[in-house]
Amino acid sequence: QVQLVESGGGLVQPGGSLRLSCGAFGFTLEHYAIGWFRQAPGKEREGVSCMSLGDGSTYYADSVKGRFTISRDNAKNTVYLQMNSLKPQDTAVYYCAAGAFSYSCSAYGSPEYHYWGQGTQVTVSS
Fold it and tell me: What are the Cα distances from residue 47, in Å, to 35, 61, 94?
């Protein structure tokens, strides 16, 4: 089966760090652009970060620039999101996604992603 499975979420204090992982099963992640999205309670899903297919260029939402880093390990078929200097407003369910599009990933939104994980909860609170 084709699946993305997130892990690494949890409770962390403001200013702390967390690394999310997303393993791909049933398809080769190397052939896809990857993205991380999040959805807070009562709010719409928003794009957090992505990495383009081909040149590997990255994009970060203004709210996370300088704090989050997206990466991939093709040998492990896994996507990562390193989150540093976490803030309470980062609290959300985080989803990884993969999409087979060619241009910069910043030009695409949720509908363009082919595969999605089930989400992992990140809570930032003191």
Answer: 8, 7, 10
Is the Cβ–Cβ distance between 110 and 36 less than 8 Å? no
pLDDT digit of tens for each residue in the chain (126 aa)?
A: 899 999 999 999 999 999 999 999 999 999 999 999 999 999 999 999 999 998 889 999 999 999 999 999 999 999 999 999 999 999 999 999 999 988 888 888 888 999 999 999 999 999
> Which neighbouring-strand residues pair with 18?
83
Q: What angle do CA 117, 34, 112 make, to 5 degrees?
A: 80
Q: Which two tokens stand for residue 58?
A: 């990255």
